[in-house]
Each structure stands twice: as structure tokens, then as C-alpha cells.
Amino acid sequence: MLITGLIQIFNRFIDISVGLYWVGEITRTTLVFLTLVALPYLFKHNLDISFLPILERFSNETYNVLILVRNILLIGFLVIMVQSSYLSYYQVNSITLPTIRWFYIRWIYAVMAVSFGATIVYVISDTLGKLIALASTDGVETDAGDDHV
């Protein structure tokens, strides 16, 4: 992606007689691909963009409840995304990118479905872990802000 991005920038200032229309398309497609592949990893390691810094100001009980609500909403969203990726995969059939004829658009939808599915698996395991932790600490008082992350 870095190389294709540099070629695209270089081509803006120095005109190369060879058409490099595919460079921008490869850069955008690679960016989307890397984002989708990295989604489960980022969520697992709390590196995603979220509202966790705001939640850390609440007590442990409120924090855990809000995280569970977030996870439930996220699972619902991810299920919708997997289903739409699955439907789109079969709808686009043999459509390719305009300048890269060998790259089928359905491949992107397949990666999306797998990435969102992997995120669902992690979110469900995270939610179950939090529920077990909540069940084991019921009735035990803890100081606010002790062990959020």
C-alpha cells in the first residue's frame, strides 16, 4: 500500500506517459482490506475507537453494565454486517474492479464476512467472561475505578 501510494503521489507531480489509474484503486482497496482484517485484533486489545475512556470514570458496576450493553449492541450490528456481506457476496457475482480486471469485488465481501464473524466470536467470549466475572463478584464490594481494563 505504501508503494502504490508513493507511486500515486509521484505521478501527480511528474507525468509518466504510462496510465497508472490502477494505483489509486489498489491503495483504496488495500486500506479497506487491512481495516477489515485488523478489526478483530483491534477490538480484542482495546485499540478500537470507542468510549472506554469515558466509561472508566464510572464505578465498576456501572462500567461493567455499560460494557455489556455495548457488547450486545455490537453483536447485533455485526450480525447484520455478516448477513449483508453474505448477501452482497452472491449479488455481485463476477463483477471486478474497473481497472483491475482480475480482482473480484466479491472477495472483499468474503473478507468482510470473515472479519465481522471473527469479531462476533471475540465479543461473545468477552461478554461471557464479563458475565462470569459479574456473577462471581455479586455481593462483594469493590472500590470504584479499581479494575476496568
Task: Please provide a written account of the structure.
Its main location: membrane. By secondary structure, this protein is mostly helical. It has a domain of 99 residues. The protein contains five helices and no strands. The longest helix is centred in the middle third of the chain and has 33 residues. The chain is elongated.
Lay out the secondary structure.
Layout: H1 2-13, H2 21-44, H3 52-55, H4 60-92, H5 105-136
Helix pairs in contact: 1-2, 2-5, 4-5
InterPro entries: DctQ
Organism: Halopenitus salinus
Keywords: Cell membrane, Membrane, Transmembrane, Transmembrane helix, Transport
Supply the number of helical segments.
5
Low-pLDDT runs:
141-146
Q: Output the helix-strand order.
A: HHHHH
Tell me the overall shape.
elongated
Roughly how many Å apart are the termini?
33 Å
Task: Describe the main β-sheet briefly.
Answer: none
Number of strands: 0
Radius of gyration: 21 Å
Helix content: over 70%
The average pLDDT is 79
The class by helix and strand makeup works out as mainly alpha
**Beta-strand percent range:** under 5%
Subcellular location: Cell membrane
InterPro entries: DctQ
Membrane topology: Multi-pass membrane protein
Pfam families: DctQ
